[in-house]
Amino acid sequence: MKIEIKSDELLKGLGLVQGIVERRNTIPILSHVLIQAEKSVCMLSATDIEVGINISCPAQVEEKGKAAIPGRKLYEIVKELPSGMSVQIKEEKNFWIDLQCMKSKFRVSGLDPADFPTFPSFEGEEYGRIDGESFHDMIEKTIYAVSQDEMRKNLNGVYIEPVDNNIRMVGTDGHRLVYVDKKGTIGGLGKKGPLISRKGILEIKKIIEEGEKEAMLALMEKSLLMKGETVSFFTRLVEGEFPEYSAIIPKEGKKKITVKRNELLTSLRRVAVIAGGKSPAVKVSLTKGVILISSINPEVGEAQDEVPAEYEGEEIALGINARYLIEPLSVLEEDDILIELSDESSPILLRKKEGRDYISVIMPMRLD
């Protein structure tokens, strides 16, 4: 194999695969990037078995072939090369790789490309389509609620299902739940949708951020496939039954509070400074026209703040993990949001003032 490629193109592709290249070296070939040269294209591939990616880069191909090169080391080399310059890559005997850019020369030990894992075929499947920006927005608004507890594998990803000609993405960790609906389709999606791993969905988010305007998606056996203009990607589906989430979503709360999103968000952040810790507990008291947020930390001190709100109900106080409100408020764009609840021990529903295409459900904490 012998190719010439612009350093910027190579760096962009290598940057996209860094989150996938296996660094633990349990299987040596997984720490390598597979370079396949054919016609006027250089294909970069990386996988950790759970997820895998192909990236097509324009290149001048003098000799077709394949090479497996240490992914992290190749990225570090190319990152230090001059921008916009040509890089020559040539495979020599015993899988040694020669790399040259202007007066800089490198010789790197590779592995047999024949040992690189085989990817599923991306051809012949029925692909659905969703706008890249919309799918990115869905991920942003659900990923924070996904459980990272390895003992609860059925919560370690986002669940996707069709709802009224839309795609619904759902995430939960057992203490809070969020869903968002967007227009779009996924090929092969039935009534019971797939559970996509946290890592897999974050890699899709990264791909979209690199400029993919549309995501073409298809389900194949135990994998989700994605195709873009220059990228193809797969992620293995998480095994296990996602909980029946609809039963815990309140239909309508007896108490309704309308509040400015940014005012509530900044107030919670201020009080959470005193609350501290991974689960900053705050007390939220509702009175006519006001939300009072407070916290007492015996080791630090006390904090209290007020936020004006539209509320005409009886006085009520409840405990809440401030982070469970801060995170959904941070990803919403609307000026006004609606909070609904029935009493101090019932689930809290947070949504846009108009519509139910975004719902966040939060379980309250017990006040001591």
Brief sketch in words of this structure:
By secondary structure, the protein is an alpha+beta fold. The chain is built from six helices and 25 strands. The protein folds into three domains: 2-115, DNA Polymerase III, subunit A, domain 2 (DNA Polymerase III, Chain A, domain 2), CATH 3.10.150.10; 128-246, DNA Polymerase III, Chain A, domain 2 (Roll), CATH 3.10.150; 249-362, DNA Polymerase III, subunit A, domain 2 (DNA Polymerase III, Chain A, domain 2).
Write the layout of secondary structure elements.
Layout: E1 2-6, H1 7-17, E2 32-38, E3 41-47, E4 51-58, E5 60-63, E6 65-70, H2 71-79, E7 86-91, E8 96-101, E9 104-109, E10 128-131, H3 132-140, E11 157-163, E12 166-172, E13 176-183, E14 195-197, H4 198-209, E15 214-220, E16 223-227, E17 231-236, E18 255-260, H5 261-275, E19 281-287, E20 290-297, E21 301-310, E22 316-321, H6 322-331, E23 336-341, E24 348-352, E25 358-362
Helix pairs in contact: 1-2, 3-4, 5-6
Overall form:
elongated
Main sheet, how many strands, which sense, barrel? 12 strands, antiparallel
Rg, Å, rounded: 25 Å
| Overall mean confidence score, pLDDT | 93
Low-confidence stretches: none
Helix run count? 6
What is the CATH homology-level superfamily of the largest domain?
DNA Polymerase III, subunit A, domain 2
Number of domains: 3
Overall helicity = 10-25%
Percent of sequence in beta strands = 35-45%
Spatial separation of the terminal alpha carbons: 69 Å
Give, in spatial order, the strands making up the sheet with the most strands. Answer: 14-11-12-13-25-24-23-18-21-20-19-22
> Would you identify the CATH architecture of the largest domain?
Roll
